[in-house]
Amino acid sequence: QVYVVFSEELNCWCRALVESVWRQAEDFQLRCFLVDYAKYCSVASENIRVLAGAFAKIPHRAKKCCLYCTKPLTLHIDYCENTAKIGPAKRWDTAAIQHFRKLLK
């Protein structure tokens, strides 16, 4: 279900999906995915509201997705043998992320 939460970072009310809830001191915190900004944020429980009827039917501008079977690669350089090979990596490097963002634009 989509709710409306107040994002302090954006300083406005946004539509959001609640990912998780945890107790913090005297109130609850919610981890939310902002469906129109594709961002995650933490929100205090007092800053959440039920979304009014007509607004709930507006399509989301952002969707959570992943690249199926796409694994990060990186360039492994061996200075001793003067070779370079592309191989698996634990995480995406900055250049690959920037290249992917350019492709999306």
UniProtKB/TrEMBL annotation:
Q: Which residues form a coiled coil?
A: none
Q: List UniProt keywords, sorted A-Z.
A: ATP-binding, Helicase, Hydrolase, Nucleotide-binding, Repeat
UniProt keyword Repeat present: yes
According to the UniProt entry, its GO molecular function terms are:
ATP binding; hydrolase activity; RNA helicase activity
Q: Which residues does the UniProt record annotate as the domain Tudor? A: 3-68
Q: Which GO terms describe its biological process?
A: germ-line stem cell division
Reactions the enzyme catalyzes: ATP + H2O = ADP + phosphate + H(+)
Entry keyword Hydrolase: yes
**One Pfam family, short name:** TUDOR
Quote the EC number. Answer: 3.6.4.13
Q: What is this protein called?
A: RNA helicase
State the taxonomy lineage: Eukaryota, Metazoa, Chordata, Craniata, Vertebrata
